[in-house]
Amino acid sequence: MKIKSHIAAIFQEAFTQSGIEPQGEIAIHEATKAQFGDYQYNGIMPLAKLYQTNPREIATKVASHIQTDGVIEKVEVAGAGFINIWLSDNTLSHYATKALADERIDVAITSHPQTIVVDYSGPNMAKEMHVGHLRSTIIGDALAKLFEFLGHCVIRQNHIGDWGTQFGMLVAYLEAQGVEQSGELKDLEAFYKAAKKRFDEDAHFANTAREYVVKIQQGDTHCLELWERFIGISLSHCQEVYHKLDVSLSPKDVRAESFYNEDLSHIVTDLENAHLLQISQGAKCVFLESEEIPVIVQKGDGGYLYATTDLAALRYRATKLKANRILYVVDARQSSHFKAVFDVAQKAGFVPQETKLEHIAFGTMMDKSGKPFKTRDGGTVKLIELLDEALIRAKEAIKERENYSQGELETLAKVVGIGAVKYADLSINRQSNYIFDWDKMLSFEGNTSLYLQYAYARIQSILKKYEGDVGACEIAIGDAIEHTLVLSVLKFEDVLTKASLDATPHTISAYLYDVATDFMKFYEQNPILKEGLEKATKESRIAIASLCAKTIELGLEILGIKVLNRL
RNA sequence: GCGUUCAUAGCUCAGCUGGAUAGAGCACUCGCCUUCUAAGCGAGCGGUCAAAGGUUCGAAUCCUUUUGGACGUACCA
Question: CA(A394)–C1'(B10) in Å?
Fold first, then answer.
Protein backbone atom coordinates (compact mmCIF):
# COMPACT_ATOMS: atom_id res chain seq x y z
CA MET A 1 0.00 0.00 0.00
CA LYS A 2 1.06 3.58 -0.52
CA ILE A 3 1.31 4.46 3.14
CA LYS A 4 2.97 7.86 2.86
CA SER A 5 0.62 9.30 0.29
CA HIS A 6 -2.29 7.84 2.23
CA ILE A 7 -1.18 9.70 5.35
CA ALA A 8 -0.38 12.80 3.32
CA ALA A 9 -3.95 12.84 1.99
CA ILE A 10 -5.32 12.74 5.51
CA PHE A 11 -3.00 15.61 6.45
CA GLN A 12 -4.10 17.57 3.41
CA GLU A 13 -7.68 17.26 4.59
CA ALA A 14 -6.70 18.38 8.08
CA PHE A 15 -4.90 21.40 6.65
CA THR A 16 -7.92 22.34 4.62
CA GLN A 17 -10.21 22.06 7.61
CA SER A 18 -7.97 24.14 9.80
CA GLY A 19 -7.65 26.80 7.12
CA ILE A 20 -3.89 26.54 6.81
CA GLU A 21 -2.07 26.22 3.52
CA PRO A 22 0.79 23.69 3.60
CA GLN A 23 3.98 24.60 1.78
CA GLY A 24 4.34 22.44 -1.31
CA GLU A 25 3.86 18.72 -1.08
CA ILE A 26 3.18 17.19 2.28
CA ALA A 27 6.23 15.09 3.03
CA ILE A 28 5.63 12.30 5.51
CA HIS A 29 8.75 10.70 6.95
CA GLU A 30 9.30 7.51 8.82
CA ALA A 31 9.73 8.24 12.49
CA THR A 32 13.34 8.48 13.56
CA LYS A 33 12.66 6.65 16.81
CA ALA A 34 10.05 4.20 18.04
CA GLN A 35 8.98 6.59 20.78
CA PHE A 36 7.97 9.08 18.08
CA GLY A 37 5.49 6.66 16.54
CA ASP A 38 5.48 5.13 13.08
CA TYR A 39 5.69 8.24 10.94
CA GLN A 40 6.24 11.93 11.51
CA TYR A 41 5.43 15.18 9.81
CA ASN A 42 8.06 17.90 10.09
CA GLY A 43 6.54 20.47 7.81
CA ILE A 44 4.94 22.63 10.46
CA MET A 45 8.09 24.43 11.59
CA PRO A 46 9.00 26.12 8.31
CA LEU A 47 5.32 26.95 7.97
CA ALA A 48 5.23 28.61 11.37
CA LYS A 49 8.08 30.77 10.29
CA LEU A 50 6.11 31.93 7.29
CA TYR A 51 3.05 32.68 9.43
CA GLN A 52 5.24 34.11 12.17
CA THR A 53 3.53 32.13 14.86
CA ASN A 54 4.34 29.47 17.37
CA PRO A 55 4.85 26.15 15.53
CA ARG A 56 3.33 24.11 18.32
CA GLU A 57 0.17 26.16 18.04
CA ILE A 58 -0.24 25.40 14.35
CA ALA A 59 0.74 21.79 14.91
CA THR A 60 -1.90 21.41 17.56
CA LYS A 61 -4.50 22.98 15.34
CA VAL A 62 -3.70 20.74 12.37
CA ALA A 63 -3.41 17.68 14.60
CA SER A 64 -6.87 18.30 15.99
CA HIS A 65 -8.33 17.89 12.52
CA ILE A 66 -6.54 14.64 11.71
CA GLN A 67 -8.92 11.78 11.07
CA THR A 68 -8.05 9.03 13.51
CA ASP A 69 -10.64 6.44 12.67
CA GLY A 70 -8.81 5.03 9.65
CA VAL A 71 -5.19 4.19 9.08
CA ILE A 72 -4.03 6.73 11.66
CA GLU A 73 -4.64 5.67 15.22
CA LYS A 74 -3.43 8.82 16.90
CA VAL A 75 -1.21 11.83 16.43
CA GLU A 76 0.77 13.81 18.95
CA VAL A 77 2.45 17.17 18.83
CA ALA A 78 5.98 16.92 20.17
CA GLY A 79 9.21 18.83 20.49
CA ALA A 80 9.57 21.99 18.47
CA GLY A 81 6.44 21.28 16.45
CA PHE A 82 6.71 17.76 15.12
CA ILE A 83 3.55 15.79 14.56
CA ASN A 84 4.09 12.17 15.43
CA ILE A 85 1.87 9.59 13.86
CA TRP A 86 0.81 6.16 15.07
CA LEU A 87 -0.91 3.77 12.71
CA SER A 88 -3.82 1.58 13.64
CA ASP A 89 -3.30 -2.14 14.26
CA ASN A 90 -6.73 -2.91 12.87
CA THR A 91 -6.19 -1.08 9.63
CA LEU A 92 -2.69 -2.48 9.15
CA SER A 93 -4.02 -5.98 9.84
CA HIS A 94 -6.72 -5.44 7.26
CA TYR A 95 -4.27 -4.29 4.57
CA ALA A 96 -1.85 -7.07 5.39
CA THR A 97 -4.55 -9.73 5.06
CA LYS A 98 -5.50 -8.21 1.74
CA ALA A 99 -1.87 -8.22 0.59
CA LEU A 100 -1.48 -11.88 1.51
CA ALA A 101 -4.29 -12.81 -0.85
CA ASP A 102 -2.76 -10.90 -3.73
CA GLU A 103 -0.05 -12.14 -6.06
CA ARG A 104 1.58 -8.72 -6.15
CA ILE A 105 1.13 -8.44 -2.40
CA ASP A 106 -1.08 -5.50 -3.17
CA VAL A 107 1.51 -3.39 -4.95
CA ALA A 108 -0.43 -1.38 -7.52
CA ILE A 109 0.41 -1.25 -11.18
CA THR A 110 1.31 2.34 -11.93
CA SER A 111 -1.40 4.62 -13.19
CA HIS A 112 1.17 6.56 -15.21
CA PRO A 113 2.98 3.94 -17.25
CA GLN A 114 6.05 5.20 -19.05
CA THR A 115 8.19 3.82 -21.79
CA ILE A 116 11.58 3.42 -20.20
CA VAL A 117 14.72 2.54 -22.11
CA VAL A 118 17.42 0.94 -20.03
CA ASP A 119 20.83 0.81 -21.68
CA TYR A 120 23.05 -1.63 -19.84
CA SER A 121 25.78 -4.24 -20.06
CA GLY A 122 27.17 -3.05 -23.42
CA PRO A 123 30.06 -5.49 -23.87
CA ASN A 124 32.69 -5.11 -26.57
CA MET A 125 32.52 -7.90 -29.12
CA ALA A 126 36.26 -7.85 -29.67
CA LYS A 127 36.92 -9.06 -26.16
CA GLU A 128 35.49 -11.31 -23.57
CA MET A 129 33.23 -9.90 -20.89
CA HIS A 130 35.22 -8.92 -17.82
CA VAL A 131 34.46 -7.60 -14.36
CA GLY A 132 34.04 -4.12 -15.76
CA HIS A 133 30.71 -5.24 -17.19
CA LEU A 134 29.45 -6.78 -14.00
CA ARG A 135 27.98 -3.76 -12.29
CA SER A 136 26.26 -2.37 -15.36
CA THR A 137 24.72 -5.75 -16.11
CA ILE A 138 23.52 -6.40 -12.58
CA ILE A 139 22.25 -2.91 -11.80
CA GLY A 140 20.67 -2.44 -15.20
CA ASP A 141 18.86 -5.74 -15.02
CA ALA A 142 17.51 -4.99 -11.55
CA LEU A 143 16.24 -1.60 -12.67
CA ALA A 144 14.62 -3.07 -15.75
CA LYS A 145 12.83 -5.64 -13.62
CA LEU A 146 11.77 -3.03 -11.10
CA PHE A 147 10.21 -0.76 -13.74
CA GLU A 148 8.56 -3.73 -15.36
CA PHE A 149 7.06 -4.89 -12.10
CA LEU A 150 5.61 -1.46 -11.46
CA GLY A 151 3.89 -1.62 -14.82
CA HIS A 152 6.13 0.46 -17.05
CA CYS A 153 7.00 -0.52 -20.58
CA VAL A 154 10.68 -1.38 -20.44
CA ILE A 155 12.87 -1.56 -23.51
CA ARG A 156 16.24 -3.09 -22.81
CA GLN A 157 19.05 -1.91 -25.02
CA ASN A 158 22.29 -3.80 -25.11
CA HIS A 159 24.55 -1.34 -26.92
CA ILE A 160 27.25 -3.80 -27.86
CA GLY A 161 30.53 -2.61 -29.33
CA ASP A 162 30.67 -4.34 -32.70
CA TRP A 163 32.31 -1.63 -34.79
CA GLY A 164 35.78 -0.21 -35.02
CA THR A 165 39.24 -0.80 -36.34
CA GLN A 166 40.02 -3.88 -34.25
CA PHE A 167 37.41 -5.88 -36.14
CA GLY A 168 39.43 -5.69 -39.33
CA MET A 169 42.22 -7.49 -37.57
CA LEU A 170 39.97 -10.02 -35.88
CA VAL A 171 38.06 -10.84 -39.03
CA ALA A 172 41.24 -11.19 -41.05
CA TYR A 173 42.62 -13.51 -38.41
CA LEU A 174 39.42 -15.51 -38.33
CA GLU A 175 39.75 -16.00 -42.06
CA ALA A 176 43.42 -16.91 -41.81
CA GLN A 177 42.66 -19.52 -39.15
CA GLY A 178 39.92 -21.01 -41.25
CA VAL A 179 36.38 -20.02 -40.56
CA GLU A 180 35.25 -23.58 -39.95
CA GLN A 181 37.96 -24.23 -37.42
CA SER A 182 37.17 -21.33 -35.19
CA GLY A 183 37.98 -23.46 -32.21
CA GLU A 184 40.21 -20.79 -30.77
CA LEU A 185 37.21 -18.60 -30.42
CA LYS A 186 36.28 -20.62 -27.39
CA ASP A 187 38.64 -18.25 -25.72
CA LEU A 188 38.05 -14.85 -27.22
CA GLU A 189 40.79 -13.28 -25.16
CA ALA A 190 43.41 -15.67 -26.46
CA PHE A 191 42.10 -15.19 -29.97
CA TYR A 192 42.45 -11.43 -29.67
CA LYS A 193 45.98 -11.74 -28.35
CA ALA A 194 46.97 -14.13 -31.12
CA ALA A 195 45.51 -11.82 -33.74
CA LYS A 196 47.31 -8.86 -32.23
CA LYS A 197 50.58 -10.75 -32.20
CA ARG A 198 50.23 -11.66 -35.85
CA PHE A 199 49.25 -8.07 -36.62
CA ASP A 200 52.42 -6.78 -34.98
CA GLU A 201 54.73 -9.39 -36.49
CA ASP A 202 53.35 -9.96 -39.95
CA ALA A 203 53.29 -6.86 -42.14
CA HIS A 204 51.32 -8.58 -44.86
CA PHE A 205 48.64 -9.63 -42.39
CA ALA A 206 48.55 -6.14 -40.92
CA ASN A 207 47.85 -4.75 -44.35
CA THR A 208 45.03 -7.22 -44.92
CA ALA A 209 43.61 -6.28 -41.54
CA ARG A 210 43.61 -2.60 -42.43
CA GLU A 211 42.05 -3.35 -45.80
CA TYR A 212 39.33 -5.35 -44.11
CA VAL A 213 38.39 -2.45 -41.88
CA VAL A 214 37.66 -0.41 -44.97
CA LYS A 215 35.98 -3.28 -46.73
CA ILE A 216 33.63 -3.92 -43.84
CA GLN A 217 32.70 -0.28 -43.79
CA GLN A 218 32.14 -0.30 -47.54
CA GLY A 219 29.84 -3.27 -47.24
CA ASP A 220 32.03 -5.87 -48.92
CA THR A 221 29.97 -9.06 -48.84
CA HIS A 222 32.78 -11.43 -47.99
CA CYS A 223 34.13 -9.31 -45.16
CA LEU A 224 30.70 -8.54 -43.79
CA GLU A 225 29.94 -12.24 -43.66
CA LEU A 226 33.10 -12.87 -41.71
CA TRP A 227 32.32 -9.97 -39.44
CA GLU A 228 28.79 -11.16 -38.79
CA ARG A 229 30.08 -14.58 -38.02
CA PHE A 230 32.56 -13.19 -35.57
CA ILE A 231 29.94 -11.04 -33.83
CA GLY A 232 27.62 -14.02 -33.66
CA ILE A 233 30.20 -16.14 -31.90
CA SER A 234 31.20 -13.35 -29.55
CA LEU A 235 27.60 -12.60 -28.69
CA SER A 236 26.96 -16.23 -27.87
CA HIS A 237 29.75 -15.94 -25.30
CA CYS A 238 27.88 -13.05 -23.75
CA GLN A 239 24.65 -14.98 -23.67
CA GLU A 240 26.48 -17.72 -21.84
CA VAL A 241 27.52 -15.19 -19.20
CA TYR A 242 24.02 -13.73 -19.01
CA HIS A 243 22.60 -17.18 -18.54
CA LYS A 244 25.04 -18.00 -15.80
CA LEU A 245 24.47 -14.67 -14.13
CA ASP A 246 20.74 -15.16 -14.54
CA VAL A 247 20.01 -11.81 -16.13
CA SER A 248 17.17 -11.20 -18.54
CA LEU A 249 19.13 -9.90 -21.53
CA SER A 250 18.54 -11.81 -24.73
CA PRO A 251 19.74 -11.38 -28.33
CA LYS A 252 16.58 -9.42 -29.13
CA ASP A 253 17.73 -6.68 -26.74
CA VAL A 254 20.87 -6.10 -28.75
CA ARG A 255 20.98 -2.79 -30.51
CA ALA A 256 24.57 -2.66 -31.58
CA GLU A 257 26.71 0.35 -32.37
CA SER A 258 26.71 -0.63 -36.01
CA PHE A 259 22.94 -0.27 -36.09
CA TYR A 260 23.42 3.50 -36.09
CA ASN A 261 26.06 3.64 -38.82
CA GLU A 262 23.78 4.94 -41.53
CA ASP A 263 22.44 7.64 -39.31
CA LEU A 264 25.79 9.11 -38.29
CA SER A 265 26.17 11.38 -41.30
CA HIS A 266 22.64 12.66 -40.71
CA ILE A 267 23.48 13.48 -37.14
CA VAL A 268 26.33 15.65 -38.36
CA THR A 269 24.28 17.44 -41.03
CA ASP A 270 21.41 17.97 -38.62
CA LEU A 271 23.78 19.52 -36.12
CA GLU A 272 25.11 21.67 -38.91
CA ASN A 273 21.61 22.78 -39.88
CA ALA A 274 20.91 23.61 -36.26
CA HIS A 275 23.99 25.86 -36.35
CA LEU A 276 25.59 23.98 -33.52
CA LEU A 277 28.60 22.79 -35.43
CA GLN A 278 32.03 24.37 -35.57
CA ILE A 279 35.19 23.16 -37.18
CA SER A 280 38.08 23.18 -34.81
CA GLN A 281 41.52 21.79 -35.62
CA GLY A 282 39.97 20.00 -38.56
CA ALA A 283 37.31 18.19 -36.55
CA LYS A 284 33.58 18.90 -36.48
CA CYS A 285 32.67 19.89 -32.97
CA VAL A 286 29.85 21.16 -30.85
CA PHE A 287 31.02 23.66 -28.25
CA LEU A 288 28.94 23.97 -25.11
CA GLU A 289 29.10 27.00 -22.85
CA SER A 290 29.41 24.86 -19.77
CA GLU A 291 32.24 22.75 -21.14
CA GLU A 292 35.76 23.69 -22.04
CA ILE A 293 36.19 20.72 -24.30
CA PRO A 294 33.95 20.31 -27.32
CA VAL A 295 31.94 17.27 -28.22
CA ILE A 296 33.60 15.97 -31.36
CA VAL A 297 31.19 14.32 -33.75
CA GLN A 298 33.42 13.87 -36.75
CA LYS A 299 37.15 13.46 -36.83
CA GLY A 300 39.49 15.30 -39.14
CA ASP A 301 39.78 12.17 -41.29
CA GLY A 302 35.99 11.95 -41.62
CA GLY A 303 35.50 9.17 -39.08
CA TYR A 304 32.77 9.28 -36.48
CA LEU A 305 33.15 8.90 -32.76
CA TYR A 306 31.27 7.36 -29.89
CA ALA A 307 29.59 10.69 -29.16
CA THR A 308 28.09 10.58 -32.65
CA THR A 309 26.79 7.07 -32.11
CA ASP A 310 25.42 8.04 -28.72
CA LEU A 311 23.57 10.97 -30.25
CA ALA A 312 22.09 8.71 -32.91
CA ALA A 313 21.07 6.19 -30.27
CA LEU A 314 19.55 8.92 -28.16
CA ARG A 315 17.48 10.18 -31.05
CA TYR A 316 16.41 6.66 -31.99
CA ARG A 317 15.31 5.93 -28.46
CA ALA A 318 13.45 9.18 -28.01
CA THR A 319 11.70 9.30 -31.36
CA LYS A 320 11.46 5.73 -32.70
CA LEU A 321 11.10 3.96 -29.38
CA LYS A 322 9.16 6.90 -27.95
CA ALA A 323 10.87 6.67 -24.60
CA ASN A 324 9.75 8.94 -21.76
CA ARG A 325 12.81 8.09 -19.80
CA ILE A 326 16.19 6.88 -21.01
CA LEU A 327 18.66 5.42 -18.56
CA TYR A 328 22.33 4.72 -19.19
CA VAL A 329 23.77 2.32 -16.68
CA VAL A 330 27.37 3.20 -17.27
CA ASP A 331 30.52 3.73 -15.23
CA ALA A 332 30.72 7.05 -13.36
CA ARG A 333 33.91 7.96 -15.22
CA GLN A 334 31.83 8.75 -18.25
CA SER A 335 29.64 11.28 -16.51
CA SER A 336 31.08 14.30 -18.26
CA HIS A 337 30.65 12.56 -21.60
CA PHE A 338 26.97 11.87 -20.96
CA LYS A 339 26.36 15.30 -19.55
CA ALA A 340 27.68 16.82 -22.76
CA VAL A 341 25.94 14.38 -25.08
CA PHE A 342 22.59 14.90 -23.33
CA ASP A 343 23.09 18.60 -23.59
CA VAL A 344 23.83 18.47 -27.31
CA ALA A 345 20.90 16.14 -27.99
CA GLN A 346 18.51 18.51 -26.26
CA LYS A 347 19.90 21.61 -27.92
CA ALA A 348 19.68 19.94 -31.32
CA GLY A 349 16.15 18.81 -30.64
CA PHE A 350 17.04 15.14 -31.06
CA VAL A 351 15.03 14.41 -27.95
CA PRO A 352 11.92 16.22 -26.72
CA GLN A 353 12.46 18.48 -23.71
CA GLU A 354 10.18 16.34 -21.56
CA THR A 355 12.15 13.14 -22.14
CA LYS A 356 14.19 12.38 -19.07
CA LEU A 357 17.79 11.47 -19.75
CA GLU A 358 19.65 9.91 -16.89
CA HIS A 359 23.15 8.65 -16.51
CA ILE A 360 22.89 5.92 -13.90
CA ALA A 361 26.50 6.18 -12.82
CA PHE A 362 28.26 3.61 -10.69
CA GLY A 363 31.68 3.40 -9.12
CA THR A 364 34.57 1.07 -9.75
CA MET A 365 34.82 -2.40 -8.35
CA MET A 366 37.76 -2.72 -5.98
CA ASP A 367 39.42 -5.70 -4.37
CA LYS A 368 39.70 -6.28 -0.66
CA SER A 369 42.70 -3.99 -0.36
CA GLY A 370 40.90 -1.14 -2.09
CA LYS A 371 42.64 -1.37 -5.46
CA PRO A 372 40.89 -1.89 -8.79
CA PHE A 373 39.87 -5.51 -9.21
CA LYS A 374 42.50 -7.41 -11.20
CA THR A 375 44.00 -10.86 -11.49
CA ARG A 376 47.21 -11.63 -9.62
CA ASP A 377 49.32 -10.68 -12.61
CA GLY A 378 47.41 -7.47 -13.13
CA GLY A 379 45.14 -8.61 -15.96
CA THR A 380 41.42 -8.13 -16.20
CA VAL A 381 39.28 -10.78 -14.56
CA LYS A 382 37.03 -12.61 -16.99
CA LEU A 383 33.43 -12.49 -15.92
CA ILE A 384 32.80 -16.12 -16.64
CA GLU A 385 35.69 -17.10 -14.39
CA LEU A 386 34.49 -14.86 -11.62
CA LEU A 387 31.05 -16.47 -11.77
CA ASP A 388 32.56 -19.95 -11.74
CA GLU A 389 34.53 -18.98 -8.68
CA ALA A 390 31.31 -17.74 -7.07
CA LEU A 391 29.80 -21.20 -7.49
CA ILE A 392 32.84 -22.90 -6.00
CA ARG A 393 32.96 -20.52 -3.06
CA ALA A 394 29.23 -20.82 -2.48
CA LYS A 395 29.60 -24.58 -2.31
CA GLU A 396 32.37 -24.18 0.26
CA ALA A 397 30.27 -21.80 2.30
CA ILE A 398 27.26 -24.08 2.63
CA LYS A 399 28.44 -27.66 2.29
CA GLU A 400 29.32 -28.23 5.92
CA ARG A 401 26.01 -27.01 7.23
CA GLU A 402 23.71 -29.76 6.09
CA ASN A 403 23.81 -33.11 4.42
CA TYR A 404 23.16 -32.06 0.90
CA SER A 405 23.27 -34.46 -1.97
CA GLN A 406 25.71 -33.61 -4.74
CA GLY A 407 22.91 -32.53 -7.06
CA GLU A 408 21.30 -30.44 -4.38
CA LEU A 409 24.60 -28.79 -3.61
CA GLU A 410 25.05 -27.80 -7.26
CA THR A 411 21.61 -26.23 -7.40
CA LEU A 412 22.05 -24.44 -4.10
CA ALA A 413 25.48 -23.15 -5.08
CA LYS A 414 24.07 -21.51 -8.19
CA VAL A 415 21.34 -19.70 -6.33
CA VAL A 416 23.56 -18.80 -3.39
CA GLY A 417 26.69 -17.87 -5.33
CA ILE A 418 25.07 -15.81 -8.05
CA GLY A 419 22.71 -14.26 -5.52
CA ALA A 420 25.65 -13.24 -3.36
CA VAL A 421 27.51 -11.58 -6.24
CA LYS A 422 24.42 -9.67 -7.29
CA TYR A 423 23.29 -8.71 -3.83
CA ALA A 424 26.72 -7.43 -2.84
CA ASP A 425 26.52 -5.04 -5.75
CA LEU A 426 22.89 -4.09 -5.27
CA SER A 427 23.08 -3.50 -1.54
CA ILE A 428 25.39 -0.52 -1.64
CA ASN A 429 24.90 2.93 -3.05
CA ARG A 430 25.82 2.49 -6.70
CA GLN A 431 27.61 5.85 -6.99
CA SER A 432 30.56 4.97 -4.84
CA ASN A 433 33.32 2.52 -5.57
CA TYR A 434 32.75 -0.78 -3.93
CA ILE A 435 34.88 -3.41 -2.33
CA PHE A 436 34.39 -6.85 -3.76
CA ASP A 437 34.93 -9.24 -0.87
CA TRP A 438 34.06 -12.93 -1.27
CA ASP A 439 34.00 -13.65 2.45
CA LYS A 440 31.69 -10.80 3.21
CA MET A 441 29.24 -11.47 0.43
CA LEU A 442 29.00 -15.16 1.24
CA SER A 443 28.40 -14.59 4.93
CA PHE A 444 25.13 -15.37 6.65
CA GLU A 445 25.60 -12.37 8.86
CA GLY A 446 24.63 -8.83 8.13
CA ASN A 447 23.01 -7.40 5.05
CA THR A 448 23.68 -10.29 2.67
CA SER A 449 21.68 -12.38 0.25
CA LEU A 450 22.29 -15.47 2.38
CA TYR A 451 20.70 -13.87 5.41
CA LEU A 452 17.59 -13.10 3.38
CA GLN A 453 17.56 -16.52 1.76
CA TYR A 454 17.95 -18.09 5.18
CA ALA A 455 15.04 -16.10 6.58
CA TYR A 456 12.98 -17.21 3.62
CA ALA A 457 13.94 -20.86 4.03
CA ARG A 458 13.06 -20.73 7.71
CA ILE A 459 9.59 -19.54 6.87
CA GLN A 460 9.17 -22.20 4.20
CA SER A 461 10.09 -24.82 6.73
CA ILE A 462 7.32 -23.62 9.02
CA LEU A 463 4.80 -23.37 6.23
CA LYS A 464 5.56 -26.92 5.23
CA LYS A 465 4.76 -28.14 8.71
CA TYR A 466 1.58 -26.15 9.00
CA GLU A 467 -1.54 -28.15 8.27
CA GLY A 468 -4.08 -25.70 7.00
CA ASP A 469 -4.78 -23.14 4.35
CA VAL A 470 -2.57 -20.12 4.93
CA GLY A 471 -4.51 -18.21 2.32
CA ALA A 472 -7.62 -18.36 4.48
CA CYS A 473 -5.85 -16.99 7.55
CA GLU A 474 -6.51 -13.53 8.83
CA ILE A 475 -3.82 -11.25 10.19
CA ALA A 476 -4.51 -9.62 13.53
CA ILE A 477 -1.59 -7.73 14.99
CA GLY A 478 -1.09 -8.94 18.54
CA ASP A 479 1.85 -6.96 19.91
CA ALA A 480 4.47 -4.32 19.18
CA ILE A 481 6.77 -6.75 17.37
CA GLU A 482 4.00 -7.78 15.01
CA HIS A 483 3.03 -4.16 14.52
CA THR A 484 6.57 -3.31 13.43
CA LEU A 485 6.84 -6.34 11.21
CA VAL A 486 3.51 -5.91 9.47
CA LEU A 487 4.18 -2.23 8.96
CA SER A 488 7.57 -3.08 7.47
CA VAL A 489 5.98 -5.44 5.00
CA LEU A 490 3.37 -2.89 4.01
CA LYS A 491 6.06 -0.34 3.21
CA PHE A 492 7.03 -2.41 0.17
CA GLU A 493 5.18 -0.30 -2.35
CA ASP A 494 6.58 2.99 -1.01
CA VAL A 495 10.07 1.54 -1.20
CA LEU A 496 9.69 0.26 -4.75
CA THR A 497 8.22 3.53 -5.92
CA LYS A 498 11.06 5.53 -4.44
CA ALA A 499 13.68 3.14 -5.79
CA SER A 500 12.25 3.43 -9.28
CA LEU A 501 12.20 7.23 -9.19
CA ASP A 502 15.77 7.49 -7.97
CA ALA A 503 17.04 4.36 -9.73
CA THR A 504 18.53 3.13 -6.47
CA PRO A 505 18.25 -0.64 -6.07
CA HIS A 506 20.16 -0.52 -2.80
CA THR A 507 17.15 1.00 -1.06
CA ILE A 508 15.27 -2.19 -1.90
CA SER A 509 17.98 -4.38 -0.39
CA ALA A 510 18.15 -2.24 2.73
CA TYR A 511 14.41 -2.58 3.03
CA LEU A 512 14.41 -6.36 2.58
CA TYR A 513 17.09 -6.63 5.22
CA ASP A 514 14.83 -4.68 7.57
CA VAL A 515 11.94 -6.99 6.88
CA ALA A 516 14.14 -10.03 7.46
CA THR A 517 15.56 -8.74 10.75
CA ASP A 518 12.10 -7.77 11.95
CA PHE A 519 10.96 -11.25 11.05
CA MET A 520 13.84 -12.88 12.94
CA LYS A 521 12.87 -10.95 16.07
CA PHE A 522 9.25 -11.97 15.66
CA TYR A 523 10.34 -15.55 15.09
CA GLU A 524 12.33 -15.61 18.31
CA GLN A 525 9.59 -14.20 20.47
CA ASN A 526 6.35 -15.36 18.96
CA PRO A 527 6.23 -19.09 18.36
CA ILE A 528 4.00 -19.94 15.44
CA LEU A 529 3.33 -23.66 15.54
CA LYS A 530 3.53 -24.07 19.30
CA GLU A 531 1.00 -26.41 20.92
CA GLY A 532 -1.75 -24.70 22.83
CA LEU A 533 -1.78 -21.46 20.89
CA GLU A 534 -5.17 -20.01 20.22
CA LYS A 535 -6.36 -20.77 16.72
CA ALA A 536 -6.71 -17.12 15.73
CA THR A 537 -3.23 -16.29 17.05
CA LYS A 538 -1.67 -19.22 15.27
CA GLU A 539 -3.40 -18.34 12.02
CA SER A 540 -2.43 -14.71 12.26
CA ARG A 541 1.20 -15.57 12.93
CA ILE A 542 1.45 -18.08 10.12
CA ALA A 543 -0.14 -15.50 7.82
CA ILE A 544 2.36 -12.84 8.88
CA ALA A 545 5.23 -15.26 8.31
CA SER A 546 3.86 -16.16 4.91
CA LEU A 547 3.49 -12.51 3.96
CA CYS A 548 7.10 -11.89 4.97
CA ALA A 549 8.26 -14.75 2.79
CA LYS A 550 6.30 -13.43 -0.14
CA THR A 551 7.77 -9.98 0.30
CA ILE A 552 11.32 -11.28 0.49
CA GLU A 553 10.75 -13.52 -2.50
CA LEU A 554 9.24 -10.80 -4.62
CA GLY A 555 11.80 -8.22 -3.55
CA LEU A 556 14.68 -10.53 -4.37
CA GLU A 557 13.06 -11.48 -7.65
CA ILE A 558 13.05 -7.84 -8.65
CA LEU A 559 16.74 -7.70 -7.82
CA GLY A 560 17.25 -10.80 -9.94
CA ILE A 561 17.95 -13.14 -7.04
CA LYS A 562 16.27 -16.48 -6.37
CA VAL A 563 15.14 -17.99 -3.09
CA LEU A 564 15.38 -21.54 -1.72
CA ASN A 565 12.92 -23.66 0.20
CA ARG A 566 15.66 -25.35 2.13
CA LEU A 567 19.01 -23.96 3.12
C1' G B 1 45.99 23.83 -14.04
C1' C B 2 40.63 23.18 -14.75
C1' G B 3 36.34 20.07 -13.92
C1' U B 4 33.49 16.06 -11.53
C1' U B 5 33.10 13.38 -7.20
C1' C B 6 34.04 11.44 -2.48
C1' A B 7 35.65 11.84 3.06
C1' U B 8 30.39 9.27 8.76
C1' A B 9 32.60 3.81 14.64
C1' G B 10 38.98 -0.08 14.08
C1' C B 11 36.71 -2.31 9.06
C1' U B 12 32.40 -2.41 5.30
C1' C B 13 28.37 0.73 4.67
C1' A B 14 23.12 3.41 5.70
C1' G B 15 21.38 8.14 6.76
C1' C B 16 14.71 8.86 2.97
C1' U B 17 16.83 15.95 -0.50
C1' G B 18 17.26 20.79 6.58
C1' G B 19 14.59 17.99 11.90
C1' A B 20 14.33 15.48 17.96
C1' U B 21 19.96 11.89 21.66
C1' A B 22 23.86 10.25 13.91
C1' G B 23 22.24 4.29 12.64
C1' A B 24 23.31 -1.08 10.82
C1' G B 25 26.64 -5.25 9.97
C1' C B 26 31.62 -7.15 10.89
C1' A B 27 35.34 -7.35 14.72
C1' C B 28 35.64 -7.43 20.30
C1' U B 29 33.09 -8.68 25.47
C1' C B 30 28.89 -11.00 27.74
C1' G B 31 24.00 -13.66 27.84
C1' C B 32 20.16 -17.08 25.37
C1' C B 33 19.05 -23.93 22.31
C1' U B 34 14.18 -30.37 26.43
C1' U B 35 10.13 -25.22 21.73
C1' C B 36 8.92 -23.88 14.44
C1' U B 37 16.54 -24.11 10.96
C1' A B 38 21.54 -21.02 17.07
C1' A B 39 23.43 -20.06 9.40
C1' G B 40 19.52 -17.10 14.83
C1' C B 41 18.24 -13.48 18.90
C1' G B 42 19.45 -10.02 22.98
C1' A B 43 22.97 -6.75 25.68
C1' G B 44 27.54 -4.03 25.87
C1' C B 45 31.80 -1.51 23.62
C1' G B 46 32.80 1.92 19.81
C1' G B 47 31.71 9.05 16.79
C1' U B 48 35.19 16.27 16.94
C1' C B 49 30.11 13.11 10.63
C1' A B 50 38.04 15.26 7.28
C1' A B 51 39.05 20.77 9.21
C1' A B 52 37.44 25.91 9.66
C1' G B 53 33.89 29.52 8.79
C1' G B 54 28.82 30.84 7.10
C1' U B 55 23.29 30.50 6.17
C1' U B 56 18.80 29.62 10.63
C1' C B 57 14.62 28.18 15.37
C1' G B 58 17.66 23.60 13.77
C1' A B 59 23.26 21.32 9.48
C1' A B 60 26.33 14.81 8.52
C1' U B 61 22.83 17.05 4.86
C1' C B 62 22.87 23.74 1.86
C1' C B 63 27.09 27.76 0.70
C1' U B 64 32.52 29.26 0.97
C1' U B 65 37.58 28.07 2.00
C1' U B 66 41.32 24.42 3.33
C1' U B 67 43.33 19.37 3.53
C1' G B 68 43.38 14.45 1.58
C1' G B 69 41.84 10.60 -2.13
C1' A B 70 39.53 8.86 -6.77
C1' C B 71 38.24 9.92 -11.64
C1' G B 72 37.96 12.93 -16.10
C1' U B 73 40.43 16.50 -19.07
C1' A B 74 39.30 17.22 -28.07
C1' C B 75 39.86 13.51 -32.69
C1' C B 76 39.69 5.44 -28.25
C1' A B 77 34.92 3.61 -26.23
Answer: 28
